[in-house]
Every structure is written in structure tokens, then in C-alpha cells.
Amino acid sequence: MIPNQPFRPAPASARDKLLEAGVKLIRQQGFAGTSVDQLCSEAGVTKGAFFHHFASKEALGVALADYWSSSTGAFFAAAPYHHHADPAQRVLGYIDLRTELIGGPAESFCCVAGTMVQEAFLSSDLIRTACNSSILGNAAALEDDLAAAIEQSGARGVTAASLARHIQAVIQGAFVLAKAQGDVGAAAAAREHLLHLRRYFEMLLQPRIEETAS
Amino acid sequence: MIPNQPFRPAPASARDKLLEAGVKLIRQQGFAGTSVDQLCSEAGVTKGAFFHHFASKEALGVALADYWSSSTGAFFAAAPYHHHADPAQRVLGYIDLRTELIGGPAESFCCVAGTMVQEAFLSSDLIRTACNSSILGNAAALEDDLAAAIEQSGARGVTAASLARHIQAVIQGAFVLAKAQGDVGAAAAAREHLLHLRRYFEMLLQPRIEETAS
């Protein structure tokens, strides 16, 4: 897996060009810092085209979270980690894939939804809800594997839903520390947290020998 | 410990009033979304006073990261978890304190530095560096306890510095998911990640029985 490969085909329609411009600019400078003029200029479309497709910048933000979810969701749904027979290995395979996808500067691997919601959670309930759905949708896709891994291991005191959310929380936090680190060390600054997450899950989801022996 | 108690005395000078306005507004709406006019209005000072103390909004952002670090740093330095005899318990005590401090809506407990750097990391290297120092300064304060806990437990493959950074990454990620969750469930949405972090550290830092017995 090569990091930073776009999951999406090159945009053809004006709408998709604007959404791709949103991915790029919001990763670089956030939602409030990105203007409709900048989005149009980056997309190479007119302001008339923008307002043909989106009633407002907020409407683009909502559509962008959905666009982000559906493209990343389809990518992960098709990834080979699903072929592991062991559910714990499927979960670790997802974490490994997320780790492999981190490379280059932070703006090339950070999360559009996590960046938007960090600043827009109070100013736009529509954007907050769309970003929450995006992040929790990624989490929900792992719940069945986590439930099977918990049952197999006998891990106590944890739920599949909470562990699934924790994967997303660690990824979001890793991206914040990567941005703080700056260009050169950004990828390494993010990856170390996915390795800690992996170690936690390995310890938690290994079969309990004292119980399986009884 | 009551959540959301300000760590800082009520601001007396115009400079401190502007910094407290920055804490409040940037937690609510981010850095790019906050104008100098809003900062002045929130602080109850004139624009002349603003530019007497800060050359630019960027200069306020840098000063704010430092103000945030020094006030939170002093609070944690004085906290009772330092009195545990066991270094692993000191580390867990810090995590417990961070967990207890989470309550109410996300804007009352989220991190000013993490919010600023999420959007300003590319547009202002000065703000990025100040936020990185703020986050890593909190991390560095835990390194000695973590080093002692690693040595005591025999945990392998981890360093004190990396575990210290991981605490901060999980906290930052918890705040992003809390913001996405929205008002009602925000605190619970953040706390669950600190509980996962605690479980990871408990498993990692417990003495290895098979080795201490040999």
C-alpha cells in the first residue's frame, strides 16, 4: 500500500471538483479559513457553478463529510484485511492498513471530517452531525470483527462499539500531534500512536490462557 | 476535582483579558473563525489595547499557546497524583485526573492548542511551534514517572517519551470525538478514550510476574 494515493477517481463534474478542492483546502487550512472564492479557484469553476451545486459553504461542508465517508468507506470495505480467518487479525489488519496509509506531510493524510468538526462543531450543527456520522461510520464498520474478537479472547469490561470508536479517536489524536510536529516528522509522529493502539489491542484480544485451559 | 474549574485567576490586565477571550472563543469556534473584533468585544477592551499588546492575531495565537501551557502545566505540577509512591500509579493518577476534568460541553474542556494547530499548522509556523511545545510540554512532564514505571514493569518495546506523547494524542482524539458527538454526550464520548488509555497502561505497566519470579 502506497501512502497518500487518492481513494477517489479524478473528479469530472464541477460538483466533484469542488468537493476535491474542499478535501485539499480544508486539510491544509481548516473550514473557517477556506473561502468560497478559494474553493472555486482551486476547482477551476465559477462562483455561479458553486452556488448551482451548494446553497452555501456550510452545504458544501456537509456534502464534503458525506463524500469523504463514502469514498473512504468504500476503500476500507474492499481492503484485503477482511480475508483473515481470525477476527482479531482482521482488526489488527485494519490498524496496520491505517498505519501504512500515513506518509508525507500531515495535510496529505489527515482527516477532513476531524479537521472540520474541530472548529465547526458549535457553529454548524449540520456539519457536526455529518462529521460525526463520517467518523462513527468508519468505527461501526469494525464492530462485528471486534465483537467476535472480544468473544474469542474473553476480554472483559470492553464493548465492540467502544473499541471501534477508540480506534478512530487514536487516529484523530495522531493527526493532531502530526500537525503540531510539522512537515519533516509528521508521519512518524502520527504512526507511533497507531502502534500503541495495536499493542493495546494485541494485549486485550489475545485469548486468555488461564480460561481456555479450564 | 470539579470539572471545568478554570485553572487561572480571573484576568485583571487587558492582556490577560484578551488571552482569556482567546481561550473561550477559540475553544468554541477555532482560530480562523475568531476575529480581532470578537476578541476585543469578548475581553471588553479596545482594538487599540489589542494592538498595544499583540502585533497581530497570530501574535495572540502564539502568546495564547504559551499562556495555556504555563497555566495548565502549573495546575498539573501541583496535583496530588505526584504523591503516589509507585510510578505506575502516578501515571495512572494523571490519566484519572484528566478524566475527572472532562465534564459539560466540549468547548468547556477541549484543548486550545489542539484546536489551533488543527487548522493553523500550515498557515502559521509560529503558532504550530507554540502549540507543539504546549502539547509536548505536557507530555514531557510525565516522562520520568513513565521511565520508572517501564523499568519496574519490564515492559518491552516502548519508551517513556513515546508513551507520554500517546497520552496527549489520546486526549486530543477524545476531544475531537467529543466535539463530533455534540452537547449532551460530549463528556462521556471523551472519557471512554481515557479509560481505554488507562487499561492499556495498566496492562503494559504491571510487573511481569514470570520475570520477577525468576
Topology, pairings included?
The structure is a homodimer of 214-residue chains.
Chain A: H1 14-29, H2 36-43, H3 47-53, H4 57-77, H5 87-100, H6 106-109, H7 112-120, H8 125-140, H9 143-153, H10 160-181, H11 186-205, H12 209-212
Key features of this structure:
mainly alpha; elongated; homodimer; 71% helix
Plain-language structure description:
- The structure is a homodimer.
- By secondary structure, the first copy, chain A, is mainly α.
- The first copy, chain A, has one domain: Tetracycline Repressor, domain 2 (Orthogonal Bundle).
- In chain A, about 70% of the residues lie in helices and about 0% in strands.
- The first copy, chain A, contains twelve helices and no strands.
- Chain A is elongated, with a radius of gyration of 19 Å.
- The C terminus of chain A is likely disordered.
- Chains A and B meet through α7, α8, α10 and α11 of A and α7, α8, α10 and α11 of B.
CATH topology grouping of chain A: Tetracycline Repressor, domain 2
Q: Tell me the CATH superfamily of chain A.
A: Tetracycline Repressor, domain 2
Number of domains of chain A: 1
The chain pair forming the largest interface, with residue counts per chain, is: A-B, 52 and 52 residues
Please trace the helix and strand order of chain A, writing H or E for each element. Answer: HHHHHHHHHHHH
Mean pLDDT of chain A: 93
Question: What's the quick description here?
Answer:
The structure is a homodimer of 214-residue chains. Helix content of chain A is 71%, strand content 0%.
